[in-house]
């Protein structure tokens, strides 16, 4: 009797402690989830707060006089004259007319530094599009330099960053702002141009096109090969050592670091087969090998989920094994396979390291138009910009990341949607 | 004809032979009273013809594409006039490039030695010959394939099994791409590594304590003997991975336990995908985050308490890598925890254990092999992770175990050694392949071992 009450009191005493341990353990779990979610939130907040500014750029309003003598041309159809023309003079003169009391070489140079050094060429393009303007005056919004852009945006936010500005420049900006001649407008350059050394002129169009071409190449190769491999392994492969070996290989390739695929691409495709560097073809080949395991594994899961009764019914009606697979199993497994393909493509879109190995890291200004044009891709562009010293590139990089993440979010949500919408529950 | 034109004409020929043979089989069957007198459906006769017409020709085209340039270059170089014959590999490539550029009109023909001009003309004429012969060969092959197929086309020809045999082989070939990829990886890193170990002894590479891959371009250059001791890289890699695991394992494991055992359905449906978002973010984004946000934050934090934290510290790179790996560990652990049979939990709870005691003393030990396998897969990921360390870790190889200092890793060195234009046979670039070999071997062993554990564990409860 005594023994029993002893045990009971022992249990009674330990209960509070044990319950506290239970509560603590739950708290650890909650904290872990909270930290994970916090990381997601901080990451997104950080990128968006750094990058939202890049979608608008600073423009300065100037009265441009398209003076043929100033540019040094008389015929807009003459290409030689056009390329020799002094287009920078247009904006410089307009700026000097705006601030007539600026004197001295230093100050004059600082003054012209208010504008992007591509401003002249923008004006040239504008003039070529509207030839009737030659000899006339027009007030034009001209793109400002990246330092001015950084300063103006931070100044508007009330926390002016003037480390790269002179006192005079600050004063000019204030004057322009008072007269409403400087403003933020939508940054169309970001979406319409290729890479540039000048942050204000750099855009992601080239990288987006490069990513698109590379992904098309990857999809065209990896989807048919991956689906065929999955069909073979699920429906036709005999149970033997060779099949086991193929499976072990696929599972291992899924976990091989991506940079190793880059080494493979460099040694085999570029050095052995002499595929040119930096082109979407070789990028697509490398990414195909990399995404193939993902596509094979998800396609196999999709084929496996088709119930055997369907196969038996088809075979019972006299279909051959191939007819059974092609006419019945494949259409039913297709939504699952497409989901896998989209996930694989999302993985390929975000991949950087193997593409560095095969030379897609080059500085490329032109926008690629074909599979054999030199190109870079969006993640590599992000890497290149993140490495650039100019402060304005931080903003650009974050904006490019926002674009990349939105593509990825679209792809992944469409994969989830597709799975919910089309996949049948048996 | 160009390769793309040839491919297009093959497609057209294939379509033509499909419809032609299908029509012929129908024409054969009609007088006999319909297609039920044929052995196979008419489209199989069409497919048989199309396959015979295009497959061998495409195969030949592929082989030609691979070897065309190599063979022509070799022939041009052997016919080179004697005074131009190159002495070593580098000048061989130089001359070849020059000849190709002259032939393609990139270099002007003026002021070039006559030997080079002859070689360029030789190359041009060889190109023409090769183009014409391949065109002729491919058309002949396609036509004879078609002829063969139409010769076999009879009412009782078993077209379906014939087509299906070919398809089975095509499917098998697709499945074997995985094997060829593995072989390709092994051979590419192995051959270059063997070349590297010829100039740097393997013992010095694996056990050397100093890493400075700058080799001298001129003999008399100062301080650029180039030493390839990889120990600092291995230590750096382990350090960064250890920091990452230190963050990812507790957080990933605890969130998996909470989601699997405690969380209500509502929390589970939202928290799980939200955590998975971390797995979908590209590594270059993490790299940017580590280099521009986390590293400066840690440096300032350290400065405010009197610690010097390098702005390229292993802590920043490893910490962000840990965040990246959280969903990897949590989803793998979630799988194995939910696979533990409910009866084991019920037994423990019935004995009076609290839920956390059940988890710690019953569920986790039961799931341990799977969890260990998952952690090993995560380690292999951390070791092979590239972009975060390239952007946030340092370049200088330092032998230290202090996470506040800057270290470099194997992947960082591979990237720095191989980006940009380099001479392909210098020890500097070959070292990257030797590092790749190490990386591949270690991750492969980890993966095989981890997959083995996970598989064995799964079988236990199935």
Structural description of this entry:
The complex is a heterodimer of chains A (426) and B (462). Chain A is mainly alpha-helical and 426 residues long. In chain A, 67% of the residues lie in helices and 5% in strands. A three-stranded antiparallel β-sheet of chain A has the order 2-1-3. Chain A is extended. Chain A starts with a helix and ends with a helix. Chain B is mainly alpha-helical. Chain B has two domains: 3-157, no CATH class; 227-461, MetI-like fold (Orthogonal Bundle), CATH 1.10.3720.10. Chain B is built from 15 helices and two strands. Chain B has helices spanning 3-29, 42-78, 89-103, 114-152, 159-199, 202-207, 231-262, 265-280, 283-304, 314-339, 342-350, 355-384, 387-392, 410-418, 427-461, and strands spanning 211-212, 227-228. Chain B has a two-stranded antiparallel ribbon. The model of chain B has no long low-confidence stretch (mean pLDDT 87). The interface between A and B is large, with 84 and 88 residues.
Largest sheet of chain A: 3 strands, antiparallel
Global shape of chain A: extended
Q: List SSEs of chain A in N-to-C order.
A: HEHHHHHEHHEHHHHHHHHHH
Class by helix and strand content of chain B?
A: mainly alpha
Please bin the fraction of helical residues of chain A.
55-70%
CATH topology (level 3) name of the largest domain in chain A? MetI-like fold
Subcellular location (chain B): Cell inner membrane; Cell membrane
Transmembrane segments (chain B): 6-23, 44-67, 129-149, 170-191, 230-253, 274-295, 315-341, 362-383, 430-454
Organism (chain B): SAR92 clade bacterium
Function (chain B): Part of the binding-protein-dependent transport system for phosphate; probably responsible for the translocation of the substrate across the membrane.
